[in-house]
Amino acid sequence: MAGVKVVTDSAQDFDPAFLESLGVTVVPLTVHFGDESYRDGFDMRGRAFYEKLRTSPHHPRTSQPSPGTFQEVFERLTGDGSSVVAITLSAALSGTYQAAVLAKEALPDRQITVIDSKAASGGYGIMAILAAEMAKEGRAFEEIVARVRKMVDSLVTVFSVDTLDYLAKNGRIGKAAHFLGTILNMKPILSLDKEGYVTAVERVRGKGKVIPRMIEIAQERLPSGEKIIACVSHADAPEEARKLKEMVMSTFPVERLFETEIGSIIGTHTGPGTLAVCIVPASVIG
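The line above is the sequence of DegV family protein; the predicted structure tokens follow.
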């Protein structure tokens, strides 16, 4: 039946099976260890990736889906007259957005909008989930596109990494470059700016101060007292993620809270031990 179909890519880090159950089609990126290749989220997820990261003699590299892969998905989903809202990993971090745009341009007679989330991991996983829910409610294509764009503009992402080595090694350090260099017992807190680039916020002394400061920074960037929808993500750090989740729940008026484990694409660039909280005001969905 014709309607609004939602597409995203696998670097949003939610289980593809979970998203498919909501009506979201997931297009995988690929992670490569030497000559071995795995579809992110489908062939390799979470802990299995971090185990291989620690033991493989090869540092992983990642690759985006081809325009042809997106075109095949768009053609299939619009074949019954449906429209498509595609929400991708930040264009500042990957060519995935551009690949989806090229696929859309190859289908000029179809109603397809490709949105650069300017986000990573669970930040745009939230967008895909909420868009799919709005589609199931029967909301119009134009409204869903407008509300996803509001999510892009209002999303707050704060994250910490155990080391900047992975971001530097993979060329994703962006505006956080001046944070390079090791300072004893100092932990970096970073964010994604309004264009979707990694940007430095500050360093804190001692691991125990990281989560409280992440929460404070998120508070500073969100409307006071407004209900929120949040996602806590982690890279093989379940205990720290539990603490972060508890602090989010005790600090904010949480309407919904999602959890996910950072997968092989984002994990290649951030490394194990990464923690992230991504938040949108609940009012954006109307």
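Note on the example: The first strand starts at residue 4 and ends at 9. Residues 4-153 form a domain with the Rossmann fold fold (CATH 3.40.50.10170).
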